Amino acid sequence: MKKDTRIMIGISLCLIVLAGALLFWKQATTSKQNTAYQGTYREDMAGEIMTTSEDTAPVLTDAPKSSATPDMAECAVYISGAVKHPGLYRYSGQARVNDAIEAVGGFTENASTDDINLAQVLTDGEQITVLTKKEAAARKKEKAAGASDKSKEQQDGTDGNDSALININTASLDELTTLPGVGQVKANQILDYRTEHGSFSKKEDLMNISGIKEGVYNKIKDLITI
Hints:
This protein is of the alpha/beta class and 226 residues long. The chain is built from six helices and eight strands, in the order αβββββαβαβαααβ.
């Protein structure tokens, strides 16, 4: 009986030693893995987790895409006339007339480019019409004839009312382009000046605009008012 007891005690001791060895091995393995993947963690403002280890740079996983800002909203303008592919041009953010012209393939060979302000900022929903050289020449001829008739009427005293004059502080783009020597480019410069500096205090202030000097002013001074 004593011999059997000693055998059982011996087996128990062996099992205890074996269990201790297995536990030590498991702890050593876990510690090694933790050391290999040890790093620092932080949470960014979007709630994503970034991991930085000692040997690698920070990596952001599954980063959310930023939502579009109001400035990047989609806009559209219609391009017609003497361009290669007339149609609707869509864009995001800010774009200029030159961007729209390039987007539809550029001007045709017979396009009149003198009266197009390529630097003008586009606004959503507007239409840009590019005239042919023949159409532009005919329009300028009509404007010159109309301005001549108005000037003659004023000289004859048949129409001396201010209502017959173009008010440079309130006139639209189309109204301004009826003045001799004032095409779409100069008309846009007048509108831009009003936006930046406010109303004209006197007619001569038109000559503060780079595109309008004494020669142009003398042609229109009797046709305008403030």
